[in-house]
Amino acid sequence: MEELCMEIERRSGIKCYERSIENVLSSVLVTSDFWKIVKDSEEVLVLVSDIINVLEEKGYLEETNGKISLTDKGKQLIESMKLYEKTSFECDSCEGRGISIEEHKDLLKEFMRYHEKRPKPIRKYDQGFVTPSTTIARISFMMEKGDLGGKRIIVLGDDDLVSIAAALSGYPKEIAVIEIDSRITDFISKAAKEIGFDIQIHERDLREPLPSELVGRFHTFFTDPPETLKALQLFIGRGITSLIGERCSGYFGLTRVEASLEKWREIQRILLDDFKVVITDIIRSFNKYMNWDYIKETKAWNKSTKWIPEDIWYTSYLYRIETLSGTKSRNERVDEDIYQDVESSTS
Q1: Does domain 2-81 have CATH number 2.40.10.340?
Q2: Taking the CB of residue 246, how many other CB atoms lie within 10 A of it?
Q3: pTM value surpassing 0.85
Q4: Spans of all domains in the chain
Q5: CATH class of 102-322
Q6: Residue 231's Cα: distance from chain center in Å?
Q7: What's the pLDDT tens digit per position in 36-54?
């Protein structure tokens, strides 16, 4: 197994553990669909692809018409490793979030009118929007946490239209959006007029420092950045910069599809040591993403079995953080590429 890990790591440039291979094999026991294997294994997509390729070369797996299955040799390996199926016990009612949106079913119905007309995601800005129920679950969770009702909230990048859902809810005192895509800013502006809520819209690149009028103004920020360390530091740093001070909150998403546990460890170190915030919540598979039209243009497609995903496979954990005495922020200009690293596959 050690030799397999070394070969896989050499190809992918990503640390491979015996546990990584176990997770992929356990997922293959449940499904032959590449995208579902990525989702169930909770390993980085690039790594999953190379694990499958190496195991296929060694005679443990085979691919037929885009579907992946165990060979007889692979079944023997499973028995020797005493592996079990990657079984899901996710709650159907709340979709595994632990948050009910039943109280907001009317809000969901209203939000759908805008969701259905929204601009399509484009690759240029690494866009990919979540399901409507995810957006409403975000509203429900922020409300439960006391981060929305009567609060000033800022959304850093809003292809998910969180600002529109928040405006429809009527909960926040103030809503601001920073968004680089003029299609989305125009859409939010028109929606805000229809709703009758004055959403402050700032069309700008977050690599530029926040303007003074947005610094230290808000109680809550929400963001869903690209998953490079540079992007995560940038978006979260800007979010913290926008907050009033102590005991304010921030939300962001983080996958296992494009973020290894090594990256998780580093981002958690940055949160605790550099930004000096506290992590209050990490909710698995909270954010569920719609399949996007440009999938065939991505690295993920090239690493896949070239089979169009039929179900939702890209999900992320929802992080909630709080500021405390001594929390630090960052607001300097960033000129580097924030979209790509060795673990990236969908941008």
Answers
A1: no
A2: 11
A3: yes
A4: 2-81, 102-322
A5: alpha beta
A6: 12
A7: 999 999 999 999 999 999 9
